[in-house]
Amino acid sequence: MVEKPPFAEAPSDLAIIGRYIFTPDIFAAIEKTKPGSGGEIQITDAMRILLKERPFYAVKLEGKRHDAGDKLGFLIATVELALKRDDLGRDFRRYLRSLDLTG
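Above: the chain sequence. Below: its structure as tokens.
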């Protein structure tokens, strides 16, 4: 588990999306954790401490990941998900086709 590694240094093609269910021992691990990436205490560092003591379990999900952590990613996710909705998709698609995207 590595917090936001550069692409070339990523240890795998898997990502932790950020939904966790922890047992109370995470708090002791957080207290032992020194600031890491960005000068912040990273939950992945605390998780690595616990991993030395016991196993972790995960669910591997298939599908497309949307990164809504920046403005462009939020817009892309909004458009893609709106197009899939039964109650919005048809009308939203029609609206998008009506846009003048030349300028």
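The longest helix spans residues 71-84.
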